[in-house]
Structures are given as structure tokens and as C-alpha cells.
Amino acid sequence: MTASAVIPRWTPPLDAEALSDVLARVQVWVPFDADVVLDDAAIALDEVPPAKEDTEKIAGRLRGHLVRLVTIAVAAESEQDTAAAQLIEHARLLGAEDLPGDHREAVGQLRRMGWTASELLDRLVAMRCLKEVA
Q1: Which residues are CB-contacts of 94 (< 8 A; sequence separation ≥ 6)?
Q2: What's the domain count of the chain?
């Protein structure tokens, strides 16, 4: 009996196109940084509201944080926890809303997004889905 008859020939799990896609995703991947989430939440929640020209940029970052936190929560099956499930749903709704044109209303939405991101982060830490942050 030859070795080739006993051991099946190895085939790669992905073809060249799929490997290229994986490489492209890894190259643009940014590790999760809870401190950045807290910094952006603090900007949104500060008693001095962000300048009108900064609201869109801050909203974009907060939306990104909410998406990542929801993804982490879902992957960790955190929806089993009632408080986490409510925060996940709230994060999804806020992330899908357009920023209002009125600056005062936009600041209100930023604050809701910042609060939700902070609370969901705290909940995931309490559930040990994420490491504690400073």
C-alpha cells in the first residue's frame, strides 16, 4: 500500500478569489477599542454640545461603534439578557436614523447614540463579553 492511498490529498479550504477577499478584509480591519467608544460617547454627552460642523462626523463614528457593539453582542448571544436585548434594539434603531437637520435635534440624537453606546458597552463588560475598560 502506498502513502497516497492511505492519506487523502489536501485541498485548500478557500480558492484564490476567496483568499484574496479575506486578505482585503484583514488589511482594512481595525481592532475594537473601547476607549475610543467612551471618548466619542463623552463628546456627545458633554454639557457643551459639539459644533454644528462636527455633528455629522461624530454621528458617523457613533454609528460605527453601535454597529460593532451590536455585532459583538449578537455573536456572544447577549440577546438572552433582557437589558442587553433592549440596548441592542435601541442601538439598531438609532444607527438607522438619519441625523436631523436642526442642530439642537441633531445634538439630542448624538446624545442618545452616545448614551446607548456607553450603556451597551457597560452591559457587555458586565456580562463578560468584553474586557473591562478604564
Answers
A1: 66, 109, 112, 113, 116
A2: 1
Could you tell me if residue 19 is inside a domain? no
Q: Show pLDDT as tens, one digit a residue, over the chain (134 residues).
A: 555 568 888 888 888 899 999 999 999 988 889 999 999 999 999 999 999 999 999 999 999 999 999 999 999 999 899 999 999 999 999 999 999 999 999 999 999 999 999 999 999 999 999 887 65
Q: Is residue 17 part of a domain?
A: no
Alpha-carbon distance of 41 to 89, in angstroms, equals 18
In a domain, 3, yes or no: no
- How far apart are the C-alpha atoms of 83 and 121, rounded to whole Å? 12
Contact 69, 117 (CB under 8 A): yes
What pTM value is reported for the model?
Answer: 0.81
Hey, is 46 helix, strand or coil?
Answer: coil
Q: How many CB atoms lie within 10 A of CB 87?
A: 25
Return the number of other C-beta atoms located less than 10 Å from residue 26's C-beta. 8
